[in-house]
Design brief:
Blueprint: H1 10-22, E1 28-32, H2 39-51, H3 64-70, H4 76-86, H5 92-97, E2 102-105, E3 108-111, H6 129-138, E4 148-152, H7 160-171, E5 177-183, H8 191-194, E6 198-201, H9 207-217, H10 222-231, H11 236-241, H12 244-263, H13 267-278, H14 285-303, H15 317-326, H16 329-347, H17 352-362
Parallel strand pairs: 1-5, 1-6, 3-4, 4-5
Antiparallel strand pairs: 2-3
The protein binds zinc ion.
Length: 366
């Protein structure tokens, strides 16, 4: 147990280990990269190493703080517990009064976007101002052990006016605390916040490492492993949770939607298909948008005649090539711009079906 178990991004790992070794740990770190790439796992390991009682070059995984912090490896049941404590019918005021804070060791807090269960099912989970206030208060307490670590997963979901509060902590950084912000991209955070963090961008894990990892951790056969690795774009966490059958089915539905959009099928049919898609409980709307982007980027390559390149969706190559021949660059540009608008609307919690219908309808080429 230790940093050696972390997959990929060796340069980031060794930079963090160097800081811990020299005891020169910055007060704010920003980890960016796609979902499942390991940002959270490495933040948790950092918290362990910063508090390990037997730290030499690596954390031991055996001492009391190491063990307690390692419970954060699977945060889902802890989040459920926190929500249950607050009660199922929490209103907005209650959500701020009893902020969701995950703590398995007094020095290490995990802050996640609060999946508040209000009546609107499309409400996007976000980091609430109550959570930020709690962090602000706790950041200046002396640690019980060596260092307080606050991991803010989904830091990009904090509202911009709340971010000012957060900025105050970064402007007067506590001596014995480190905030680790996790976000998909640097520009999903305000520049004022971004510039006060030491930034690390996580790159996709190399093909051969993914292959070895999937071989060890799954029962998947070689062709499936290859597909998992490609579909997850070198993201181990995503590859582990990806259900190939489910993914194939969902991508085919989206492909059909795109094909219908190209030929300008009757909108009623598209709406029905869209409704079905948007109501899917299992996949988040963000995942569906990601799949749209992924298929469109293949269509773009094929429309430019790049037939020898390796598509992101190799199992749908034939269909995507056919679609690529039917559309031009402008159409794809319109399609991706439409998705960008949807994506930003999503952040403002606009009804999901409304947005998707409008998008598909606007893509008819005639
Ligand atoms: Zn330890």
């Amino acid at each position: 147990m230790g940093f050696s178990e972390f997959l990929g991004n060796e340069r980031i790992v060794s930079a963090l280990r160097g800081m811990l070794r020299r005891e020169r740990v910055p007060s704010a770190l920003l980890f960016t990269g796609p979902r499942g790439i390991g940002k959270y796992a490495l933040a948790r390991m950092f918290a362990q190493a910063a508090n390990c009682e037997r730290l030499k070059d690596d954390f031991c995984g055996e001492c009391d703080p190491c063990k307690k912090i390692s419970r954060l490896a699977d945060p889902a049941p802890l989040i459920e517990l926190g929500l249950a404590e607050r009660g199922e019918s929490a209103d907005s005021a209650m959500v701020e009064r009893m902020p969701l804070l995950i703590e398995t060791n007094p020095d290490v807090w995990l802050i996640v976007p609060d999946p508040v269960r209000l009546r609107t099912p499309v409400a996007r989970p976000m980091i609430r101002v109550g959570q930020l206030r709690a962090v602000q208060r706790a950041a200046y307490f002396q640690p019980h052990g060596r260092r307080r670590v606050f991991i803010l997963d989904g830091a990009d979901t904090m509202r911009w006016n709340d971010a000012d509060l957060f900025l105050k902590i970064l402007e007067e950084p506590p001596d014995s605390a480190t905030l680790i912000l996790l976000a998909p991209t640097p520009d999903s955070l305000l520049p004022t916040i971004r510039s006060r963090c030491l930034q690390f961008h996580f790159a996709p894990v190399r093909e051969e490492h993914m292959e070895a990892f999937l071989k060890e951790r799954t029962d998947a056969k070689a062709p499936e492993r290859e597909l998992l690795s490609q579909l997850s774009c070198g993201s181990p966490g995503m590859a582990l949770t990806l259900d190939l059958q489910e993914s194939s089915r969902l991508r085919r539905i989206i492909l059909t939607l795109l094909e219908q959009a190209v030929t300008g099928e009757k909108s009623g049919q598209i709406f029905a298909a869209t409704a079905q898609l948007a109501k899917r409980e299992k996949e988040s709307f963000e995942n569906i948008l990601d799949l749209f982007y992924s298929l469109l980027s293949d269509v773009l390559e094929f429309s430019q005649g790049q037939t020898h390149s390796l598509p992101r969706n190799p199992d749908l190559r034939r269909e995507l090539e056919a679609l690529g021949r039917k559309v031009n660059f402008e159409w794809i540009l319109r399609a991706t711009q439409g998705l960008d608008v949807l994506d930003s609307r999503l952040r403002r919690n606009v009804g999901r079906q409304l947005g998707l219908d409008a998008h598909i309808a606007s893509l008819a080429t005639r």
